[in-house]
Hints:
This protein has 721 residues and is mainly beta. 3% of the residues lie in helices and 56% in strands.
Amino acid sequence: MIPLKASEIKGIITNREKGVAFASISVQNTKYGTQADESGYFHLKNIPSGKQNIIISSVGYISKSVQINIQENKSHQLNIEIEETNAQLNEVVVTGTMKETSINESPAPIQILNPTFFRKNPTPSLFESLSMVNGVRPQLNCNVCNTGDIHINGMEGPYTMVMIDGMPIVSALSSVYGLSGIPNSMVERIEVMKGPASTLYGSEAVGGLINVITKNPSKAPKINFDVNTSSYLENNFDISGKTKVGKFDVLLSGNYFLFNKRWDVNNDNFTDITLQNRTSIFNKWSMNRKSNRVFNLAARYIYEDRFGGEMQWQKENRGGSEVYGESIFTKRIEMLGSYQLPIDNQKIILNFSFNQHQQNSVYGNTFYLATQRIAFGQLLWDKKLGKRHDALFGATFRQTFYDDNTPVTQNTDAQNTPDNISLPGIFLQDEISLNQTNKLLVGLRYDYNSKHGGIASPRINWKLSPNKDNIFRLSLGNGYRVVNLFSEDHAALTGSRKVLIKNNLKPERSYNANLDYQHFFSFGNGYGNLQLNGFYTYFSNKIIADYDQNPELVVYDNLKGYGISKGVALNAELILASSWKVFMGGTLMDVYRVDNGLKINQIQTPHFTANYAISYTLPKLQLSIDLTGNFYSPMRLPVVRAYGDTRPEYSPWFGIHNIQATHRFANGLQIYTGIKNFTNFLPQNPIFRPEMPFSEQFDPSYNYAPLQKIRGFVGIRWSIF
């Protein structure tokens, strides 16, 4: 027999775009094999030609088999991504308890999302990316300027707290525009907690919270860039790099988003999507001191020029009454840091942040000029008390300055009196290990609001894990929310409705319950998990914006009755070594208020939502296919019947679906292309009386989906480690 001539294979073994150190690579049923280096790169020599099965394995990962046709005396390239065994169990989270712990040890249910997941449907910002998360829905609130917020389990945006590295950076005024200014280039992972979190994080965390964990400079790629564009001419540029400066690891990332083409698909003479010119720069310095003490300091700057309005609007029409346009200039700076105090045998950490948000907005001929500054400090003492108790003591202080040109910041003599609110607080929690299967977490927070007085928020969490594959969690809590009126409800400014505040608004109170079950399983060459979650929230003193009393008014008042948000959610994840990955989820909910015995469904809140992400990889071609999408049931919409508005009060069933193909090259370069909204769904009649934009009847709040038709996109990304 004539021996087959030999060849070689070069490549890299990765997991979530990071090299898998010392993975084993072997040719099945032969003596040939090698081991990857610490960066995941390998070089396998002297492989017999012909069809060969290449086996990749590593401790903690699912083994993978790839068939490749080896041609004689040639060098072949093979880049393989392998999956962790029950990877979610070992994910590190900080949101549920304010200290690092793994998901299976956390008493609170936390969902982890990383940039690799979001790249299945590339978007220019965090706001759009979150549409892929079950139970989390980005909601556009204005069809002209495309402002939006994040709904968790049906609760409106003001009930969702958005943090960066555990600090309340995006809130109040900045929640409307700040979410679109968080680029994916600065994100290491996102932690989503559905349900009450006021005990640890205070006001705004009633419905849940989103914690954006920024990249660790020491672990980030040396260079990373991602550039993409669409047939709508939406252009997004992401770039980041790291270096070493003395004892510091330094990360610098930048994002530029440009969309300046005016589209009017429905021929109403209004831009379908706002024009945006946005720059975001993020810089983070990190130093690991002795005894694992960490010092981090980061800063971010955002500038955005945003416009939506009549197609013929020009800059010289800004603020005039001849051509309607909504033009918003935003300047924003943020600083945040953490420092572990050098005290032996004690873990005491100081967290601090400051942000300033300046907004110069024009809505038709109505000017809205606002400045917000928030300073925040937090001292945490993480202390183990014996073998069973893991305690956390905290003291916080938050100072909020807010000024605008509306009557909200004027006294009875029409003199300018900016809001200046102090919010000191203390909290404590104790994580008690009752035994190997039961863990109890109890907590209490007390805040003193300089305007509303003292507010207490208790919390209790119980986790039962009878074995490593099954986890039960029960959460009970009491929360509160102090309103930031104009900065939260953008509809009070856009359009032509006037604002009426009936009484001095009292803080809302909520009473929450959340029951969660998670099951992990393995089978053959794959693994998966199922998560079932039930939630219930009761509101008293709920602050509502009533659009129904008078077509010319938005009426704010504390609800005399009560509000309810309840439902159940199911998530499923399935990962096969045969290159299939499936993520699916659905949430069934009922969100309403009861006023004078009458049940009223919450506006723009569907009873059912679902999302999916299905991926298939062809290793030989180094090609992956991603299919993603969402489904929504009908939701109640704001109609203006008094002015003859005949549009349907409820949206139709609809879905937005996307497909993408990604090719990976030998050097780590990736090229991706795809189609968004390939079923070409478009909402109907989004603006009432577009021909009368300066009249009392004009209303742009009838929104339930982006007004973008089917469109293609293409991009290129490269990470160098």
